[in-house]
Amino acid sequence: MAEERIYEEFGQYIVPSSWKDKVWDIKEYQRFHENTIKDKKAIENWWEKWANKLFWFKKWDRVLDDSNPPFYKWFVGAETNLSYLCLDWQIEQGRKNKLALIWEGEPYDETVKKPKELKKFTYYDLYQQTNRIAYALREKLGVKKDEILTFYMPMIPELLLYMLAVQRLGASHSIVYSGFSALALAERAIAAGSRIIVTADALYRRGKVKPLKEIVDEAVNICEKRGHNIEHVIVVNRTDRPGIPWKEIKDIWHHEFIKDIPENARIEPERLKSDSISYILYTSGTTGKPKGVQHSIGGYAVGLCATMKLIFDINEEDIYWCVADIGWVTGHSYIVYGPLMTGTTTIMYEGAPDYPWPDRWWDIIERYAVTVFYTTPTAIRMLMKFPLDLIKKHDLSTLRIIHSVGEPINPKVFHWYFKNLGREDVVATSTWWMTETGQILTGHFPGLGKIFPLKPGTNGFPLPGVKMEVLDVDGNPCNPGERGYLVISTPWPSMLTTLYQDPERYIDVYWSKFTKNKQWRFYTGDYAVKDQDGYLWVLGRADDVLKVAGHRVGTAEIESAMLMHPTVVESACIGKPHKLKGEVPCIFTVLKQGVSPSPELETELKLHLRKTIGPIVASDAIILFVETVPKTRSGKIMRRLLKAVITGQKLGDITTLEDPTAVKEAERAYQYLK
Ligand code: 6R9
Predict the structure, then answer these.
(1) Ligand 1: which residue has its CA nearest to atom 22?
(2) What's the pLDDT score for residue 10?
(3) Distances 232 to 216, 249, 399 between C-alpha atoms, Å
(4) What is the pLDDT of residues 615-635, one digit of tens each?
(5) Whole-number pLDDT of residue 4
(6) What contacts 24+ positions apart, CB below 8 Å, involve 190-194?
(7) For a surface tag, which of 9, 43, 83, 573 has the fewest beta carbons within 10 Å of its beta carbon?
């Protein structure tokens, strides 16, 4: 369990060899940090310094408007454009011919063990191609400011190009991860009011061609049935797959779409107000309805610029690789916008960490001499099972920073990658943040020129300019070592501006739990501990949200998907610890009267989950058949008790439990599984 690992590792420090002379005393950092958050002026000064490093069509009148909390406004009165920052401004700074993006596709040439497709784009290439797409979107489909397009795409360069193209027009995107089902896609496209979906014919994954267009067609039908018209589907031809279903006029091939747009087509980037919408990204919460997290432009850019420098210490010569999928917030902020606006060479790859070879990642790091690497604990755990020789045969000595994100990192896993990837001479942290925060908020800050010692498994310290606290249920600060709820007590620039078209839910979900002394505090939904030295340890979600292989999914979403199956009357989902994926859904399922449990039904339900929620969540899900699930007398499912059953912990207080046999039932079902 998470708590155990804390005490096991308390007090162990590491300083990477080449940082020995640049070690910041922890107290010294804390004083520095304290100074950046001591009052509003200090916070504004800190962030204003970063804002001054970016390009603005018009500068701000005020750094932070906090007159209507929690609707904070950053860089009020300022105007900029993310596409301009990532392209035009880079060219103006002399990076026209600098490599901006390196992309590798999945298919490999078996004989030479090299990718069949490899594309390199300079900043100028990206600029040209983005302009052409923006031009086509505006002239042919009338895309304009304030409209939201939905993207359902593989990890191909066109995704990044379409992102930058809509930013140029002042429109926004909502990217739906390509592992999601047609239903999930349709619900998100309706919620965003999109009339255009951009997709591909299919994607490559572990040697297989997985159709996307058919899923989009299904989503378009669902939209239509619900009264929402998708006017156009733009399709990138990724795999040359024959027999793709096609509707003339509605469906448009990407290559046809831009064919007649001249190379030198130019779209003047819209001058956008700082708090205009850059994008929305749907994420899971504790109810079945996904939340449309809405991000700004100006504040978002400032938070990214600061963290690219502070956390990743990005310099002109760095080759930077973040292995995330762009469908995840990590890809938005740290594959596309952050790296490009800071003039970095960013790598993007299609496929899987261990396919076609288990050393694919190490091969890529070696071939491009990657210096800064951003990864996930799930992927590291998966790669740890292969023989070390696979790492040793590659020269990884260029790496100097290797951070992780997405879930807690076990100290053992940290040691493994620090030693085997990092030669014990890299700065490495588990950087904590969320879709809602837009930017990394904790870690180590090599960009300051000094680091405090690394402590395996921790999330380091909060970023300068940001106050984070661990509070007990009454809103009082916890003592060092005590578990509590993680809150963010000061606004930060890349913060979400609201939930799309749902300001009340925004207040309710994030700002209503900890309001002691009438202070506004953002509730993260995570459990955390600060240890006696002030290092932060985020332990995991405190609410009904799972992180399956780093992907965020609500138990309520899984339960409502189960209910859509005709044989299911009720279900209760909890997270079960899993060696590779961190956790997987374990679903206690009650069947309709007259329906008997069977291995066939179990398979069918898993297939159903795959279709409704998507393969990542469904593939290792456990379905347990029970007669009933434990509930309170008022009818609330007591997931806490199910969790206790599967982790072998004490049940705790069961006075509100209506029917004690429900726990016995769960125990029986779980025994059967074992
Ligand atoms: C960026 C991202 C957010 C949730 C968050 C927390 C977990 C993320 C973490 C971490 C421990 C880290 N989380 N990073 N937990 N250590 N370094 O993951 O966004 O998908 O919205 O998930 O992920 O539980 O609340 P998102």
Answers:
(1) 434
(2) 46
(3) 11, 8, 44
(4) 888 889 999 999 999 988 777
(5) 39
(6) 190/223, 190/226, 190/228, 191/282, 191/290, 191/292, 191/500, 192/148, 192/150, 192/280, 192/292, 192/500, 193/148, 193/228, 194/147, 194/148, 194/149, 194/150, 194/230
(7) 9
Token pair recorded at residue 337: 């916008």
| Residue bearing the CA closest to ligand 1, atom 14 | 406
Q: What is the pTM of this model?
A: 0.91
Residue nearest to atom 26 of ligand 1 (CA): 434
Nearest-angstrom CA–CA distance, 624 and 509: 31
Location of structure tokens 């596409």? 83
314, 491, 523, 576 from 66: Cα distances, Å: 31, 9, 18, 41
Ligand 1 centroid from CA 443, angstroms: 13
d(CA 582, CA 290): 22
Of 371, 304, 316, which is closest to residue 341 (Cα–Cα)? 304
Nearest to 545 by CA among 184, 177, 176, 284: 284
Q: What is the DSSP letter of 25?
A: P
The DSSP-derived string for 487-510 is EE-S--TT---EETT-HHHHHHHH
d(CA 304, CA 294): 16
Q: What is the largest CA-CA distance in the chain?
A: 72
Predicted confidence at residue 167, as pLDDT, reads: 98
Q: How far apart are CA 571 and CA 462, in angstroms?
A: 39
According to the model, what pLDDT value does residue 374 have?
Answer: 98
pLDDT of residue 655: 75
Nearest-CA residue for ligand 1 atom 10 is 407
Ligand 1-lining residues (CB < 6 angstroms): 283, 329-330, 405-408, 430-435, 459, 524-526, 538, 540-541, 547, 552
**CA–CA separation, 72 and 40 (whole Å):** 13
Could you count the other beta carbons within 10 Å of the beta carbon of residue 158? Answer: 23
Reading the block at residue 209, the tokens are 């061609």
Q: Give me the pLDDT at residue 9, please.
A: 45
Distance of CA 599 to the CA centre of its chain: 35
How much is the pLDDT for 326?
96
Q: Which amino acid is at 430?
A: S
Q: Is 66 within 8 Å of 72 (Cβ atoms)?
A: yes
Q: What is the 3-class SS of 251-270, one letter each residue?
A: EEEHHHHHHCCCCCCCCCCC
pLDDT in the model for residue 7? 37
E-strand spans in 513-643?
Answer: 522-530, 536-541, 545-548, 551-554, 568-578, 582-591, 622-626
Which of the residues in the chain have pLDDT under 50?
1-10
Tally of residues, the chain: 674
